[in-house]
Specification:
heterodimer; A: mainly alpha; F1FO ATP Synthase; 4 helices; 89% helix; B: two-stranded antiparallel ribbon; 2 strands; disordered C terminus
Chain lengths: 93, 233
């Protein structure tokens, strides 16, 4: 097995792992946030605008953790620096 | 598969490249500035006003209200900066319904530039409001032990601002491209509608986070009068 094959295997595996493991935490977090917001909405419907605004901002901040994982996995698959390095080296030979 | 509109190059002359990000950013700037110039050319104070003036008034007062809700008590002062951020990001994301358009916010260069603007603007507003010593003192809050963490936080939140906007918009167009291969009939339309919603929410969040950072840097001063503080219904 040459270097580029190893890099391809490692990149694809870790891209999948990044996405899979990285979405567990934000999923749990978003669930908790929405549950808390729904509880407080049921208790205080008057504060709906404030709760909704804070919920949206909070959700987007939690979601951005999953987005970072997505960005990393996309970089691993489509813009992998090690892959391009070895491909350039192989082309140079 | 393209990761960002940076890779579409329209024109090249030696070192200078004119890629899709720059072209669409210039286009948006042109539309926004010329549009606002045309609308504000003849403003009326009376009861009869043009529908475009109504639109702009709704947008401006809405942004000012949101900025005030975050805790900045004089929204007029921050409106030019935060409003521009919101209008640019929102229009960049909403224009994705135009075929052939690539959102410039889907490129890390654009979002990094916007986040750097926030990084520079926050200390400027803070120093203007509290003076240099007062602003530097906010880094040592609540204790002096927090000083390095506050300084790291200043830079890491710039990074997260940039990557959050980039990641959301890029993932939207990436998922759309994948879905077009898998189920090209109905589903991409639903996802692009969701992408419009995400784009709007991200524009809102970018602005609100910038406002929150500015509010944190300027919070030393208490509101001048009781009438300044609005009670949120």
């Amino acid at each position: 097995m040459d270097n580029s094959t190893l890099i391809a295997i490692a990149s694809i595996l870790s891209a999948g792992l990044t996405m899979g493991l990285g979405s567990i935490g934000p999923g749990l977090g978003e669930g908790r946030a929405v549950a808390g917001a729904l509880t407080s909405l049921a208790q205080q419907p008057d504060a709906a605008t404030t709760i909704t605004r804070t919920l949206f901002v909070g959700l987007a901040m939690i979601e951005s953790i999953a987005i970072y994982c997505f960005v990393v996995s996309m970089i691993l698959i489509f813009a992998n620096p090690f892959w391009t390095h070895f491909v350039a080296e192989a082309a140079g030979k | 598969m393209r990761l960002s509109p940076d890779e579409i190059i329209f024109w090249r002359e030696g070192f200078f490249k004119l890629n899709a990000t720059i072209v669409y950013t210039w286009g948006l700037m042109l539309v926004l500035t010329v549009g606002s110039r045309l609308v504000t050319r003849n403003l009326s104070l009376g009861l009869t006003r043009s529908r475009w003036q109504n639109l702009l008034e709704i947008v401006v007062t809405g942004i000012a209200k949101q900025i005030e809700d975050v805790g900045l008590h004089h929204p007029k002062k921050y409106l030019p900066f935060l409003g521009t951020l919101f209008l640019f990001v929102a229009s960049a994301n909403l224009c994705t319904i135009i075929p052939g358009y690539e959102p410039p916010t889907g490129s890390l260069s654009t979002t990094a530039a916007l986040a750097l603007c926030v990084l520079v603007a926050v200390p400027l507003f803070g120093i203007e409001e509290q003076g240099l010593g007062g602003y530097l003192k906010t880094f040592a809050e609540p204790t002096i032990i927090m000083l390095p963490f506050n300084i790291i936080g200043e830079f890491s939140r710039t990074l997260t601002l940039a990557v959050r906007l980039f990641g959301n918009i890029m993932s939207g167009s990436m998922i759309l491209a994948i879905l077009l291969i898998l189920t090209p009939f109905i589903f991409p339309i639903v996802m692009s509608a969701l992408g419009l919603l995400t784009g709007m929410v991200q524009a809102y969040i970018f602005t609100i986070l910038a406002a929150v950072y500015i509010a944190a840097a300027t919070r030393g001063r208490e509101p001048r009068t009781e009438a300044d503080t609005t009670i949120d219904a």
